[in-house]
Amino acid sequence: MPTRIVLNKAAARTPTRSTSRRSAVLDRSEELSARTTRPSLSTARRKSSRKRSVVTFPSSLLREAASAELNDELDFDRSVASVPGESTRRLSSDDIRASPRLMGYLFAMTTGAVMLVSVFQFYRNEIEQLDPSSSATESGIEPDKYYSTATGLVFRWKLWAAIYLSAAAVALSFGTLLVHFDTVIFPTLWIAVFRDGSLAERNWILFLLVVWIAALHVSTSVLSVGEYQPNVYFTSWIGFAAMVLNYGVWRDSAGLITTETMINQFHRETTYNWIWTGICSSIFAGAATDIYYNRELVRLRFRGERLNLTDEDWIIILSVIWSEVALCCLTVALNEVYLILWHFPCRFRREQSMFRFEFGWRQIEVIIILVSTGAKFWAILEYSGVDGVINGLSNAYFGLWGSFFHSVFAFGTWLYENKHIETVVREEINRDDDNNVNTNTSNNNSADE
Length: 449
What we know:
Keywords: Membrane, Transmembrane, Transmembrane helix. The protein is an all-alpha fold. The protein has helices at about 1-15, 20-35, 40-45, 60-75, 100-125, 135-140, 155-180, 185-195, 200-220, 230-255, 260-265, 270-295, 310-335, 360-385, 395-415, 420-449, and strands spanning about 145-150, 155, 300, 305.
């Protein structure tokens, strides 16, 4: 039979490795071939229908390595792998050694190790004890609460918290990686905890995310090590981002709604840009508020001179900055929550004229984008330069730049979304006509009653 010929050819190409298991598989496949016809190799391949997500890590190489080893060992038509008992040798989605979240734990462990070493080196090489007789202590600064560096002060508790939290992140991530490969002590327990869609792993990821949020605060806030040590600043953000992405990977593996699906469900394309603008603006506003609460200890300089801000100045500054955050939230709400998007707040048109003037939320949005982008561009030029007050490694600096970039991206997205403006206007007119017809029908029915 044709199936026998294929199997014999494959067996001829296979190196002589006579094992009882191989003989059993071949005998079983020949027995089944008398009752059914084998599918071709191309149709036997299973194609994954999983949709690629925006939030994802590369899958583990262990799955690919195991599949390659299996193919080399069998070295004949893949249809033999469908023999009962043979398919159990394949790695399934419950094999935690092939978990796509391993990459996130590895990132967290690596960045935590770099952060731990950097903080320790900073403490050993650049930290000095405050002299009780120095001018700093005479100005009211308690020497037992701060360390002194060549460029400023560092909170003692933030330095030691950075050490402990980075060490905890390394230990927890390393332990998580180890239990994924445990086949001796509690393999069944680890499979139940770290399989796809496990609520226990979700809670574990959220716990690690809380650890990295705490490490992010103590490493990037005012009078922290991250202000003076770049490795500490960037690794704290990388570790935090790794856990956020790992949570997204968990949701994808659990079959829940993913980030890509959420983005595709937005009514307006600019909503995505407004969300990121709001996140960056929140980082900038939080950093400014942190500086305000520690204004007696922070040395603000502008154009080479000490910058002394009164409480009234701080109220104005913080009001403007937080207004930007509120504006981002408002635009997202108007884009997504308001049902009749194009009718807010008003619209004027003259149907008999050669032109039509439209004024609605879409036009107001682009005005807000342009004004916001221009204001941030001016703030960057004026206050983030060489002698600017917002300079160096700080959340305020990167938050301002991030908010500016996403405002520019929002303007580009708005242009792309409205490039077929005539089609949009025509749809609005048709919608108005339909609404008028429905309104008249309702009024007539009410009058008849």
